[in-house]
């Protein structure tokens, strides 16, 4: 691996906890050296052989240095509006 031109590094280690066949829980923390850090996760479950679902969530925070760099690179020199990105989702599938 050529490290002379390395500008950034991203690492992510997914952890899955599945004590039962009916559900599991996943955590996926991330570190991006030039941008920031965050965590994503999901709780997956089955209600029956014909029904399953997932509740997912995430949060990611940009570093101040990343925000300043993005301001300099945008065409209108505007600041990023959001420093911390958060979200939640729900999926349910029934046959």
Give a description of the structure:
The protein has one helix spanning 64-73; strands at 10-12, 15-20, 23-32, 36-48, 51-62, 84-94. With 95 residues, it is mainly β. Strands 1, 2, 3, 4, 5 and 6 form a 6-stranded antiparallel β-sheet that branches. The longest helix has 10 residues, at 64-73. It is elongated. The mean pLDDT is 85.
Task: Tag the structure with descriptive keywords.
mainly beta, 1 helix, 11% helix, 58% strand, elongated
Radius of gyration: 18 Å
Gross morphology is: elongated
Low-confidence stretches: none
DSSP summary, beta strand count: 6
What share of the residues lie within helices?
10-25%
Count of separate DSSP helical elements: 1
What does the average pLDDT come to? 85
Strand content: over 45%
User: Terminal Cα separation, in Å?
Assistant: 47 Å
Sheet with most strands: 6 strands, antiparallel
What letter string, H or E per element, gives the SSE order? EEEEEHE
Helix/sheet category: mainly beta
SSE blueprint and pairings:
Elements: E1 10-12, E2 15-20, E3 23-32, E4 36-48, E5 51-62, H1 64-73, E6 84-94
Antiparallel strand pairs: 1-3, 2-3, 3-4, 4-5, 5-6
Short characterization:
The protein has 95 residues and is mainly beta.
């Amino acid at each position: 691996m050529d490290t002379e031109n390395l500008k950034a590094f991203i690492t992510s280690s997914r952890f899955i906890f599945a004590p039962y066949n009916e559900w599991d829980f996943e955590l996926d923390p991330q570190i991006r050296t030039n941008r920031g850090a965050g965590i994503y996760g999901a709780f997956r479950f089955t209600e029956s052989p014909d029904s399953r679902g997932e509740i997912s969530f995430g949060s990611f925070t940009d570093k101040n240095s990343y925000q300043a760099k993005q301001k300099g690179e945008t065409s209108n020199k505007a600041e990023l509006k959001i420093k911390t990105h958060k979200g939640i989702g729900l999926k349910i599938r029934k046959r």
